[in-house]
């Protein structure tokens, strides 16, 4: 469905029924994509969460996917836009789940709009999230080369499959590359600059008081787990789980394990390690 946020069309994929417990509505799960991505990055995970009875909302950020307007030029602006999206969708409170750049947006939103966020999950995150100078420069001059580098480094050393272990499945790096290549011109450069320039992450983390989940991929080369201690120390109420044999593109590589971890966190708040599916 399409909504109007700040005067521009926003595409929002909705799946699963709205839920309530004892007559009170439950927070929908809002999945926030990363740099030069769109709602299709969440396809497998969103379907699994909806099949488990969750109400799932997956927006395209401004200037991404099917959403109109120009890409916003700071994480802070994206965080405020996300709160405005909740208003447009008549959502009082949500579970925010963000991946990579989307994790910074979700983190900042949870700090700036605390009453709107019931739970927070950060996937493939790093605070701060520096981007190599070479990538920042080439994102403008040679964006396809940067997309190919990012899709390759987001994978673990094995071929990625979705849909289980039978059949041909889908080659994860190719799926990522296809999504990134259809981004409008200039989006990649803006997104990478946003990640690199965002310096408020640890201060924002200290202001987040809702239950928080960090999902870490053991073979993540984009946001390696060695970067996590400052964020873990800053978050007041945080759980951490780790996906073995998994790279940064965890939604493509292990959608089943990731969906199970998110489902446990959303429904019980006690995430545990799940076997790879």
Largest sheet: 8 strands, mixed
Radius of gyration: 17 Å
- What is the count of helical runs? 11
What is the average of the pLDDT values?
Answer: 90
Contiguous runs where pLDDT drops below 50 for at least 5 residues: 162-167, 269-277
Helix content: 25-40%
Beta content: 15-25%
Number of DSSP strands? 10
**How do the strands of the widest beta sheet line up side by side?**
1-2-6-5-7-8-9-10
What's the end-to-end separation, in Å? 31 Å
Written overview of the protein:
- With 277 residues, the protein is an alpha/beta fold.
- Helix content is 38%, strand content 18%.
- The chain contains 11 helices and 10 strands.
- The chain has helices at residues 43-51, 75-88, 101-112, 133-141, 143-153, 172-181, 187-197, 201-206, 229-234, 250-253, 255-267, and strands at residues 2-5, 8-15, 20-21, 24-25, 29-32, 56-59, 94-99, 117-123, 212-217, 238-243.
- An 8-stranded mixed sheet has the order 1-2-6-5-7-8-9-10, sandwiched between helices.
- α2 packs across α3, α4 (133-141) crosses α5 (143-153) and α5 packs antiparallel against α6.
- The longest helix has 14 residues, at 75-88.
- The two termini are 31 Å apart.
- 48% of the residues are buried.
- Residues 162-167 and 269-277 have low confidence and may be disordered.
